[in-house]
């Protein structure tokens, strides 16, 4: 019996696997695949961005969404710290978009680490993205924000 051997490199399993991985990387992550706190934080970032662009205060909008001024202030403090710490402007999608940016995905991961109280994971997510001196303040703001989320 003859055994089928691939005629070219495109047919090898390694090639098929790597092209699948690349295809997955091309597709942006979706907001519906995030945790509830991650989803809330992404939508809050989007609302803050919309309000900022239109010269509106995000506080009353977030306070209404969370039914808490304290929660709104904590989320805004975290969003502001993210904005100050990021090496470039934080990129967010429009509120109606189901896809999320890499920045939004990172914030969702940070949110999940803060919910779990995992400073080690939080720091590893930020490694190479922001200066290590920013980790503590970002973690404290994230913990304060997630503690207030409904």
How much helical structure, as a percent, in the residues? 55-70%
The percentage of residues in β strands lies in under 5%
What is the mean predicted local confidence, pLDDT? 88
Structural class label: mainly alpha
Work out the count of structural domains: 1
Low-confidence stretches: 1-17
Order of helices and strands: HHHHHHH
Distance between the termini: 65 Å
Overall 3D shape: globular
Number of strands: 0
The major sheet is characterized as: none
Number of helices: 7
Radius of gyration: 20 Å
Please describe what this structure looks like.
The chain has 150 residues and is mainly α. It has one domain. It contains 7 helices and no strands. Helix 5 packs antiparallel against helix 6. The N and C termini lie far apart (65 Å). The N terminus is likely disordered.
């Amino acid at each position: 019996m003859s055994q089928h051997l691939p005629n070219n490199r495109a047919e090898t399993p390694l090639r098929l696997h790597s092209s699948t991985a690349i295809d997955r990387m091309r597709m942006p992550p979706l907001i519906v695949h995030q945790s509830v706190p991650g989803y809330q934080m992404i939508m809050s970032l989007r609302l803050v961005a919309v309000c900022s662009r239109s010269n509106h205060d995000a506080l009353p909008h977030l306070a209404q969404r969370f039914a808490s001024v304290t929660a709104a202030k904590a989320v805004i403090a975290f969003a502001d710290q993210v904005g100050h710490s990021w090496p470039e402007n934080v990129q967010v999608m429009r509120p109606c978009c189901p896809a999320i940016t890499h920045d939004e995905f990172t914030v969702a991961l940070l949110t999940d680490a803060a919910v779990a109280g995992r400073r080690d994971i939080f720091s590893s997510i930020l490694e190479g993205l922001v200066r290590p001196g920013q980790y503590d303040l970002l973690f404290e703001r994230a913990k304060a924000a997630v503690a207030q989320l409904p």
